[in-house]
Amino acid sequence: MKILFSKVAVLAVFLPFLISEIAAQNGLNTVKPVIADKDLVIKISDIGEAAVFYPVDIEGARLEVLAVKAPDGSIRTAFNTCQVCYASGRGFYKQVGSVLVCQNCGNRFRMGQVEVRSGGCNPIPIFARNKTVTPQTITISKEFLKEAKTIFSRWQRR
Questions:
Q1: Mean pLDDT, to the nearest integer, of 96-106?
Q2: Structural domain range at position 114
């Protein structure tokens, strides 16, 4: 019984790392190259059911936007930080399977919740009024990104 318990304890400790590694091997948690001090332009053709993370440096501050295709086929965008946990510095998301998981509180969000739910422990949405969408691209202006710098002031995903 003691050996079984220790194996379960080891599995409990290493399972999150194993899941993250499997997700990375399966193409989840794709992080694009950093863009600096300009509008973020996302190619719609790059977006699928696996979230894509877009790091942006605005005036020396690191931000990150995520984009994903929701089950209804729409493309959703949000800042990669949790509305409740952002001040912790660890309130960012990683995709595990078909959900986003906050790295601070562990809350899980389905892709269909991105950009729909606001408030509470959700990814901070980037609504239609804050971006320009064409059939080929989604553009989020540098000015709008600049307004979000404060929510990333303690962010530790680097």
A1: 90
A2: 28-152
